[in-house]
Amino acid sequence: MTTTTTTSPQQTHQAGPAGYAPEEPGGDLWALNFGPQHPATHTTLRHVLELDGEVIRSCTVHIGYLHSGFEKLAEHMNFNQYVVVTDRMNYVSPMANNIAWHHACEKLFGIELTPRCKVIRTIIAELARIQDHLLSVGATGLDLGAFTAFMYPFNARETIYDLCEEICGARFTTSYTRVGGLMQDITPRWPSMVKDYCTEELPKALDDLESLLLRNRIFIERTKGVGQISREEAINWGITGPLARSAGVRRDLRKDEPYLCYAENWDGQGAPAVSFKVPIAAGGDCFTRFQVRIAEMRESINIIMQLVDNIPSGPIDVLPDDKMTMPNKDEVYGSIEGLIHHFEQVMTNRGHTPPVGEVYGANETANGELGFYLVSDGGNMPYRARCRPPSFINYQCFEKLIVGHKISDVVAVLGSLNIIAAELDR
Amino acid sequence: MSAKITPIIELLQKQFSDIDFAPAPLLEMKDKSAEQWCVHVQPSKLFAVMSFLRSDERCSFEQLSDLAGVDYLNFPKAKDRYGIVYSLLSLSKEHRLWVKVFVNDPNPEVPSVVSIWYGATWMEREVWDMFGVRFSDHPDLRRILTWESFEAHPLRKDYPLTGRGEREDFKVITRDSA
Fold it and tell me: Is A321 helix (H, G, I), strand (E, B) or coil?
C-alpha cells in the first residue's frame, strides 16, 4: 500500500443517490490505495480511499485488472465450447455458471430436459451454492481476524470438490453441462456420497462455524450496522441474491421464475416442486448477510436431501434424434451413423442451428441473478452473449456502503459482498 | 407472462401515442408462443418512456435488471448498427419487459437512465467502454474495464478477436526508463 497526502481533495466520483456524496471536508485528506494487491481483497481490486483520519470520506473503485473479454470469446465459440469459459467466471462455484449458461442456451433452442438431468443439475446447483457461501462466510471471518472460523468451512468445501471430481473428473474447472444434457452420467456411488456429505460433514461444519462466529463479540461488533443498505436502495441499485434478501427484498428466481426441479411438474408426470424456504432478513448489514448465507446453506441441504434418494432413471441427454446432444463414444467408434452425428456436431461449419432471435435466461446462483442475454443469427455460435454478472452489478454500491465508515470496515464489507473478480472484470 | 405484459404495452401506446413501439417477442418459439416481449423506442423519447415505466404504478419497474449493448453490424436484416437492450424487472408485479433503442454512427448517443435507476451507472459505463455508445447526462462516463487511454471499443463486431494490441506491440520498459 502506498500513501500520499493531498491538500485539495481530488474530483470524486459522485454517481448515485444524493446523501452519500461526501461532504466538503475541512483540512487535509489522505489518499490511500487499497489494492490492487492486498491480502484482504482476495483478488485484484483497487479502491482509492480518501481518509479523514480513519474515516473514509470518499471511495473510488477501479476495476478491470482481470478483464478477460469473455463476452468477445463467446462470439467465437459454439454453444458447447463456451461452457469452458463459464467455469472461469465465478470460479468459486463453477457448476452454477455451467448450468446458467446452458439454461439460457436451452431456452433459445426450446429444449425440455429429461427428468434425470434436471434432478442432477438441481443437486449440483445447490452444491455450488453451498460451495460459494462456505467460502464467503469463511473468508469474512478470516478478514476480520477469525482464522479458525475460516478453516471449518474451507475443509467442508474440499469434499464438494471431491464430489465434482467424481462426476466429471475435474475438481475446479468442471464444464459439466452440455446443450440438452450433461457431459456424462453420475457414478453409482455419487448419490450416497452426496447424502453422507449433507447429513454428516456439512451440518457439523456449519454448526462449528456458527458457534465460532454467531455469538463472537468481536465479529458481531465489526459486522453489525456496517455497510448497511435499505430495501429501496438495494432494488434501485439492481442488487440481487443474498445481498438483496438480507435487506428485505423478497426475490428468489427459484421461486419467482422457477426452472429445473424448483418448478412444479418438472418430470411431466406431476412431480411437485422441491419445497424450501427463502431466508429473508431486514437488517441489510454485513452481519445479516452472513446470517442469510448460513440459512441458505441449510435450505440447500434440505433441497438436496429431497432429491438425492429419488434420482429418476432414464437418459441424461434429450433424444439424440434432435441432433442437439453429442452421441455416446460407443456409437461414435462403433457405428457410421454415430460417427456422422459426431462430425455434424463438431465441424466448424455445422453444429447447432438455433432459431433467429434473442432470449434472456437467468438462474439464481449463490451471488444473485446470473443471466445470459443471447442474440442468435441462426449460426452455430452466438451472435452476442451478454452475461449479467451478479458480482459486477452488486459491487456498484460499494462506494455507497463504505463512505462514513472506518478503514478497517472495508474488509468486512468486501467479504460480505463476496466479489469474485474474474466475474466482476468480465 | 405475455398475458401480464400485454396491458403494459397497451398502456404505453396510449400514453405515448406518437411513438411506434412495435412490440415484438424476443424469440418466437415453434408453437408461436412467446414469453419475453420487447418494445422499441427512439433515443430522443427514451428518458420519458423509462420515467413513465418506473413511476407509473401499473408498470412499476423498480429494477433495471440488465443493460446489454449489441452491435448488429453483420446481423441478417438489421437496419441499425448499435442496439441497447434494457431489461426491466418489476418485483412487486413480477413481470419483465425489454426495451430496445437503436443508434448509429457517427455519433451514437443515448440518454442516461442513471437518475432513474442508480444501478445503471456501471452498466452504462461498460457499454460506453465496450461499444462506444455515449450516454448523455451520465454523471461519470469513464471507461470501466479498459484503461482511459485505450482507443478502441472491443465488443464492436469490426474489432478482431486477436491481433490488435498484442503483447509484442507494447512498449518495452527497461530498468533505466522505469
Answer: helix
How far apart, in whole angstroms, are the C-alpha atoms of residue A69 and residue B75? 21
Domain ranges in chain A are 3-62, 70-318+352-424
Q: Strand B95-103 relative to strand A181-182: parallel, antiparallel, unpaired?
A: unpaired
Cα A278-A284-A287 angle, rounded to 5 deg = 90
- B88 lies in a domain? yes
Identify the CATH number of the domain in which residue B61 sits.
Answer: 3.30.460.80
Q: Hey, are the CB atoms on A392 and B74 less than 8 Å from each other?
A: no
Cα distance between residue A166 and residue A190, in whole Å? 7
User: What gap in Å lies between CA A173 and CA A195, rounded to an integer?
Assistant: 23
B-chain residues near A16 (CB < 8 A): 118, 121
Name the amino acid, one letter, at A16: G
Predicted TM-score (pTM) of the model is 0.87
Please name the residues in contact with B138: beta carbons below 8 A apart, sequence gap of 6 or more: B112, B114, B121, B124, B125, B128
In contact, A273 and A263? CB cutoff 8 Å: yes
Vertex A63 angle, CA A130 and A365, to 5°? 20
Q: Is residue B178 part of a domain?
A: no
Q: Do B144 and A63 touch (CB under 8 A)?
A: yes
The residue count for chain B: 178
End-to-end CA distance of chain A: 25
Interface residue of A58, A358, A424 to substitute, partner B, most B CBs within 10 Å: A358
Write out chain B's pLDDT in tens, 178 residues. 467 788 888 888 888 888 888 888 888 777 667 788 889 899 988 998 999 988 888 888 889 999 999 999 888 888 888 999 999 999 888 888 999 999 988 889 999 999 999 889 999 999 999 998 999 888 888 888 888 888 888 888 888 887 665 566 667 778 877 6
Tell me the nearest-neighbour CA distance from B14 into chain A, angstroms. Answer: 27
Fold annotation for A70-318+352-424: Cytochrome-c3 Hydrogenase; chain B (1.10.645)
Handedness of CA B166, B172, B173, B177 (dihedral sign): negative
Structural domain includes residue B86: yes
Nearest residue on chain A to B120, judged by CA atoms?
A237
What is the phi/psi pair of residue B22, to 5°? Answer: 45, 60
Q: Is the dihedral of CA A101, A102, A108, A112 positive or negative?
A: negative
Q: What's the total number of domains in chain B?
A: 1
Is position B155 within any domain?
yes
- Determine how β-strand B95-103 pairs with β-strand B37-41: parallel
Whether A52 contacts A26, CB under 8 Å:
no
Q: How many CA atoms lie within 13 A of A401 on its CB side?
A: 30
Domain that holds residue B111: 2-169
Q: Which chain A residue has its CA at the smallest distance from B64's CA?
A: A238
Shortest distance, CA B71 to any CA of chain A (angstroms): 8
Q: Are B54 and B114 in contact (CB under 8 A)?
A: no
